[in-house]
Specification:
By secondary structure, the chain is of the alpha/beta class. It has 8 helices and 8 strands, in the order αββααβββαβααββαα. The structure holds uracil (URA). Uracil (URA) binds next to loops.
Amino acid sequence: MPGNKAKQKAKQLHKLRQESISFFREIYREEEKILVFGEGNPDAPLVLVGEAPGQQEVVQQRPFVGQAGQNLNEFLEILGIKREDIYITNAVKFRPTRLDPASGRLSNRPPNREEIELCRGLLYKELIIIRPLVVASLGNIPLKVLADDNRISIGKVHGTPMDIAVGEEGIRMILFPLYHPASIIYRPQLKEVYLEDVGKLRRYLEEKGIL
Ligand code: URA
């Protein structure tokens, strides 16, 4: 049963979603963007932040339910964590697409600077409502947004926790950078490093009394 604090946070998140829907409708008047919000425990001590939803995520309007989601579930199993106990969201809340002129089909592309900046405030507000102790970034884009540093790179800082201050309020949390779970699909040689980092995160969460 969710406690009072969780209920209050769920209400605040709901209000934030409604406001964001109006905000993005106003910005993207010509094309409707389907927003995929975060889901999970609104009072979670651990939040995971991915890059942006893909096709499956838009169909189901839930983060990490496609192929990358399967990899993510595997990693959560290693950590001994249930999805519903944490909160999972993305740095960008809609699917960035490009049209392939040959097939006429839409495919995923990385979010551009403008899309990242448009969604930055929403991610910060989400985190300030939840106030987790630890936020794990999945891949380069959420890492750069959360560290508020465009030059930082996952290849250099993966598996190394750092202190961050989120939003204008400067709410302190620990950022734990991980590779994106989909990166293993494209670069299988990363799997070992990835598992090592997940092991470090596990020990870190145990030390903090989260696990
Ligand atoms: N990749 C992400 O970064 N987020 C999702 O929700 C799905 C795939």
